[in-house]
Design goal:
heterodimer, A: 376 residues, alpha/beta, Rossmann fold, six-stranded mixed sheet, 10 helices, 17 strands, 32% helix, B: 483 residues, Aldehyde Dehydrogenase, Chain A, domain 2, 2 domains, five-stranded parallel sheet, 39% helix, globular
């Protein structure tokens, strides 16, 4: 029996506590490596955990409540995973929140409307993580591409990690004529159509990046104007985040078929990125010829599929809930319990969407219905 | 192992399309074949049951029906009876509940349908049960008779074993022909009971039927509903609303939606001698059918001021839950269910980090969880499946205003309190919307003749036919002996 109670136990210093400058330096070096074997990853994960256990007080209490301290944990799999919902109630930051150089907020699409915050002292590690992995997985050997962003930019959404991610992609990997396609007045179809024409005329590959639901709106607009494109070989599309109730919902197969038909980009070059505000690294697939695709991340993030109730890791092929250990998310909490269902497979995992709450089996009112009744 | 569900008089099994529902528990697999009738078959079935209801059932006396039912129940209580053996072997497989819990639950439940209880059941609604057999003189003058529907359609839901028995017996007692639709979560019991009744009294052969269709199959639903005189339906409000759209306006519709129940513990009961027993009873109500019943507790309100504090009481309950876990293990959960209660527990744990007045006690393997809270500003539900929230209150009188906003959903309040307090609380709880007050430990076992959701189980089903005095007086003037 675990007696969990909020109490201030005596601090137990973990091994080799680092300061912020040291951990940033270590992580930048870690990201720059070619890869990491189990031991190397484990050693770095324990250092990051030690750092967070020392500097992130709410997380420390959470770990103590789970009966774990930095000193006890010897395997990254035993690091207590914080449910992502905790970001709504707790400030999980190693640095003082007022010292954060960047604050990313969750989109608040959940039913209670509360938004969780992730604090970053600066974005050096975040950006290194994004750039290194994006180059490997999306750029497919090219150094620069003409990029169009189908998402509001950083000035419109200053607390969106996705807006930052996309801006960074355009800045680092875009040719000078890359552009944002969503302005204060909405979708800029003129620029888009000009870019599509340009690509078709010159044969120069074009990349479109944005939220999944933005693509739905974009395709609806194009269908209304009877517009399609046949983008040249090497062109690529990146969608992320799903529909989130912001557009009509499509089956994944239909979505990629439409995407492919609208832009002339084969489904194998339509990449889905899986990322979260509560992470500083992203997962990609190698195209969506078959859905659900297999997602994988870089060597500084590892994921497990667990039974959410027991925390026990599930064998390959079993559906469970995804836990990530993202070393790049060093200032908050690296190990998080998501609300995403997944299946572990060779070379990664398949993402199956949100874990659905269970329907009532009997005649007692289920939690969701109860809360709905409470709202009237 | 394969078992056929349903009971379909007048239709050859070979003419029926069967669909298989698979149930897997560990290494044991059960395939339940459920019947999918076409429109013509459903129609013919309804016609057949209506006819038998009028010509056969309505000609039996209530006493005869009570006797037949009592004999069927006696068979189900006999652990050597083949039907009982099937219940004990297959219902745990189908529902996932622990076999011992199902066995004990069935016995406790079936006991409440023996003859004396059936008589109480009737007496609860009819001062003079003979009114169901023939016209009886009415105090206001004239005569009245209670007539049950020709066709009562039952739409059952959920997976609590044996639940259809309530409405099946209610239908029988008012001489209603019944066609019941079993839920996919427990498709077996109703069919067995129908077969058993017919085995005992072959005259009932055409008086009832048990069918199945896939949820949302409105074509099948419509075929049956348009023939019904009365429809009795169980389920969530969403599915009940959907069903209502298919019930003709001339048909009586009696929905039983999902409910919220809770327990209350008075400070006076929490002395060091009695507190452990009270906690044990509270935990028992949580464990029984893993809180899936409408009568199962969603939370407990515990009054401060006893020798044992509400926080300590929570630990007692946790201890009792741990004890029950080894005796009656929880049903194996789907990943969605596990995710649901993990999210509930994790949210409580996170909340506890910033609320030192909270306490979360959980088993390492997630098999149960008790959360202690002092927050009475909002009524937070439990995650069910053996997760329970225990809320400290200064006085139990504070509870009624807390639950009142849920008036439309309230059902049972299990109470541990001294007599005077019990009656005082009952008054305010009744006004707040509670329809059943019972002892802790009895929440999941309503007594015979209870008023389910505050309604009349039998009266709601019947129509009164009256011979007014004027008819009587007028008739006198036409009598052959009149001067």
């Amino acid at each position: 029996m675990v007696y969990a109670q909020a109490s201030a136990n005596c601090p137990q210093p973990g091994p080799a506590i680092m300061n912020q400058a040291q951990i940033i330096e270590d992580l930048l070096a870690f990201i720059a490596r070619d890869g990491a074997d189990d031991d190397t990853f484990n050693a770095m994960a324990l250092r990051v955990f030690g750092y967070q256990f020392e500097h992130n007080q709410p997380y420390r209490r959470f770990c103590q409540q789970r009966g774990r301290t930095a000193r006890m944990v010897k395997d990254w799999r035993d690091i207590p995973a914080v449910p992502i919902n905790a970001y709504k109630d707790l400030t999980l930051s190693c640095c003082a929140p007022e010292d954060a150089g960047a604050v990313f907020m969750t989109s608040g699409t959940t039913k209670d409307g509360l938004r969780g915050k992730c604090h970053h002292p600066d974005l050096r590690v975040y950006d290194a993580s994004m750039k290194t992995h994006f180059r490997d997985r999306f750029m497919a050997g090219q150094t620069k591409m003409r990029i169009g962003i189908v998402f509001p930019d950083e000035t419109m959404m200053p607390n969106s990690s996705l807006a930052h991610y996309l801006a960074l992609a355009m800045r680092e990997f875009g040719t000078p004529d890359s552009h944002s396609l969503i302005g204060p007045d909405g979708l800029d179809t003129n620029t888009l159509y000009a870019a599509l024409d340009h690509a078709e005329a010159t044969g120069e590959p074009y990349a479109l990046l944005g939220a999944t639901y933005s693509f739905v709106h974009l395709m609806d607009d194009m269908r209304e104007s009877g517009r399609t494109a046949k983008l040249p070989a090497g062109s690529r599309i990146l969608d992320t985040g799903g529909f989130k109730g912001q557009s009509r919902e499509l089956e994944m197969d239909d979505f990629y078929n439409q995407l492919s038909a609208t832009f002339g980009v084969p489904r194998s070059d339509c990449i889905n990125m899986y990322g979260m505000t509560e992470l500083s690294s992203e997962f990609y697939d190698n195209g969506n010829t078959v859905v659900p695709s297999v997602k994988s991340g870089p060597h500084w993030i590892r994921s497990r599929i667990i039974n959410p109730l027991t925390g026990v890791e599930l064998p390959r092929g079993d559906t469970g809930v995804i836990v990530h250990c993202d070393l790049a998310h060093f200032n908050c909490v690296s190990t998080i319990l998501t609300e995403d269902a997944g299946i572990a497979v060779d070379d990664g995992f398949m993402l199956l969407g949100r874990v659905q709450g269970a329907e009532a089996k009997g005649c007692s009112m289920a939690v969701d219905a109860f809360l709905e009744a409470a709202r009237g | 192992m394969t078992e056929r569900a349903g009971y379909l008089p007048g239709i050859a099994e070979a003419d029926i399309e069967w669909q298989t529902l698979d149930f897997q528990r560990g290494n044991a697999a059960l395939h339940v074949e459920v019947p999918v009738l076409d429109d013509a078959q459903m129609d013919a079935l309804a016609v057949r049951v209506k006819l038998a209801s009028r010509t056969i059932l309505k000609a039996l006396t209530v006493s005869e029906i009570v006797d037949i039912t009592d004999r069927a129940i006696a068979r189900l209580l006999d652990r050597n009876d083949p039907y009982r053996r099937k219940c004990e072997a297959l219902l745990p497989l189908v529902t996932g509940y622990d076999a011992e819990m199902v066995r004990l639950g069935l016995t406790g439940y079936l006991k409440t349908f023996r003859k004396p209880n059936l008589q109480k059941f009737i007496a609860e609604d009819f001062a003079n049960p003979k009114i169901l057999d023939e016209f009886q003189p009415a105090p206001k003058g004239g005569f009245t008779k209670a007539i049950g529907p020709d066709l009562l359609v039952h739409v059952w839901a959920g997976n609590v074993p044996g639940l259809p028995l309530w409405s099946m017996v209610a239908g029988l007692l008012v001489k209603a022909g019944s066609i019941g639709k079993v839920p996919s979560g427990e498709p077996l019991f109703a069919g067995w009971f129908a077969q058993l009744l017919v085995e005992i009294e072959p005259r009932l052969t055409d008086c009832l039927a048990v069918v199945w269709w896939k949820g949302g199959d409105t074509a099948r639903e419509d075929a049956l509903l348009k023939q019904a005189d009365t429809v009795l339906a169980y389920g969530g409000n969403e599915s009940l609303t959907e069903l209502r759209k298919h019930v003709p306006i001339t048909t009586r519709y009696l929905p039983h939606g999902h409910k919220v129940s809770f327990g209350m513990v008075a400070g006076a009961t929490l002395d060091t001698r009695k507190a452990a027993g009270v906690a044990q009873q509270a935990a028992y109500d949580v464990v029984r059918y893993d809180q899936q019943g409408c009568f199962s507790p969603h939370l407990f309100f515990v009054e401060r001021g006893g020798r044992v504090s509400p926080r300590e009481f929570t630990r007692y309950v946790a201890h009792a839950l741990a004890g029950f876990e080894s005796k009656y293990p929880r049903r194996e959960l789907t990943i969605a269910e596990a995710g649901g209660i993990a999210a509930w527990r994790d949210a409580a744990e996170t909340e506890a980090l910033s609320h030192p007045d909270m306490e979360v006690i959980a088993s390492e393997t997630g098999t149960w969880c008790a959360v202690y809270s002092e927050d009475t500003t909002t009524l937070n539900p439990s995650g069910l499946n053996r997760t329970i929230r225990i809320v400290a209150v200064d006085a139990l009188d504070d509870v009624a205003p807390l639950v009142a906003p849920f008036k439309a959903f309230l059902q049972t309040a299990g109470i541990a309190a001294p007599p005077e307090e019990l009656h005082r609380l009952a008054n305010v709880l009744g006004t707040a919307g509670v329809t059943r007050i019972c002892a802790l430990g009895n929440m999941t076992a309503p007594e015979a003749g209870w008023h389910h959701d505050g309604r009349f189980n039998l009266l709601d089903l019947i129509s009164m036919v009256e011979i007014e005095q004027s008819a009587e007086t007028a008739a006198e003037t036409f009598a052959p002996y009149t001067d």
